[in-house]
Specification:
187 residues; alpha+beta; 2 domains; 6-stranded antiparallel β-sheet; 4 helices; 12 strands; globular; binds zinc ion
Length: 187
């Protein structure tokens, strides 16, 4: 099994504020099923999970239900947020984002990661090559990290093995701007 996750991220300016309404919506289109365990906001996958997310290859590792109690390595879903300020979610697979000015990798990003994970999104990063200062919100994390105020984490996914289908992205955005997605994995 894997500790990898697929993370769906709401746009900064359109986060779901009404949790009950969001849960009803996600259950209504079949992404989430019943709640799981003691932690609020954790759910089993819903009846349409495999129609909303496509798995590349034969996915022999996919496990949709826990094999025993306190088993965390199966595919389940956690709602994370809303956070007052955008924060970074990253993991061992996260690569240095590129400087928007010169294209060089901002290799010192990990020195700022702890502050960004706490929501200090206005802390800029300065490129060591060209000196350009960049907001972490505007960096391209290449689907290996994300900066947001609301996330839906899907556990038990190998990186880039699972692809959210257009129907899922449509259900999430409704009439608003697009959601995005990325993958996290620790080795
Ligand atoms: Zn630069």
């Amino acid at each position: 099994m894997t500790n990898g996750k697929l993370v769906l991220q709401a746009p900064h300016d359109r986060i779901p504020v009404n949790q009950q309404a969001l849960v009803a919506h996600l259950a209504g289109f079949g992404l989430i099923g019943s709640s799981y365990g003691e932690t609020p906001g954790v759910y089993l996958v819903g009846p349409k999970f495999l129609q909303l997310i496509t798995f590349l290859g034969c996915s022999p590792h996919l496990q949709l239900e826990p094999r025993h109690e306190s088993n965390e390595e199966f595919s389940h879903i956690r709602l994370l947020g809303p956070f007052e300020k955008p924060r970074l979610l990253c993991a061992g697979n996260t690569r240095p984002p590129r400087c928007p000015g010169c294209g060089k990798g901002l290799t010192q990003w990990r020195e700022l990661a702890a502050a960004w994970m706490e929501g200090m999104y206005d802390l800029e990063i300065t490129c060591r090559e060209c000196g350009q200062r960049s907001s972490p919100l505007l960096l391209n994390w290449r689907r290996k990290a994300g900066f947001g105020r609301y996330f839906i984490e899907i556990f038990g996914i190998f990186p880039e093995e699972a692809l959210p289908l257009p129907e899922l992205m449509e259900c999430l955005r409704r009439d608003g701007p697009e959601w995005s997605y990325f993958y996290l994995n620790d080795w």
